[in-house]
């Protein structure tokens, strides 16, 4: 009898993780009110239904990495959301993000977005400055990234973004990086005639093949660890602010109870 009870309980827990519920959100955050949740990390839980997540209307940071999400409709009510990680899911339609007007950083690597037309709904997001559709560190991508013109089209579509696929496109060093890359591609293009490599025994390549490709390295691992550390640090600060607020409210409430009652004669 007991084994069957345990099996039933495990199945119920699995079903609870498959769909986001108020119980799951409260147990993960320790908050009693969904509107009090400011950040949320639900990584690799097998979630396919976002359920009541739209009720977390004050949510600022959301991490749903590594789930089975296909429909992100409930995210449309999260207007204060600034950082959103949807990498490694099964998302093809991102239209609901149109109303997330405070969105600054968006990670969609490892989904099934097929064309740049699917990204038009993000053009109205004026604060969006960091978009990731491809992550070479973990071999995450989208079908849209296979197009030769993908990068140029996205940069033209979002002229104000600062970072695309983890590479800075504006700011210090970005112009020099792009210039060197263009020069290298031009030199390589001039080394071929009728599809055959022209032999120049006295000439050596400027850089080795694959020099400009982003590869996983210790630096990439360190940068990712540093990013995760900053995320945890940010969460700690938010928790501290929340705790300070609650303590202040409690002290105020207790001081009011201690005050002697006054009677008018």
From TrEMBL:
Signal peptide: none annotated. GO terms for biological process: outer dynein arm assembly. InterPro entries: Leu-rich_rpt, LRR_dom_sf. The keyword Repeat applies. GO terms for cellular component: cytoplasm. Keywords: Leucine-rich repeat, Repeat. PANTHER family: LEUCINE RICH REPEAT PROTEIN, LEUCINE-RICH REPEAT-CONTAINING PROTEIN 61. This is Leucine rich repeat containing 61. It comes from Xiphophorus maculatus (Southern platyfish).
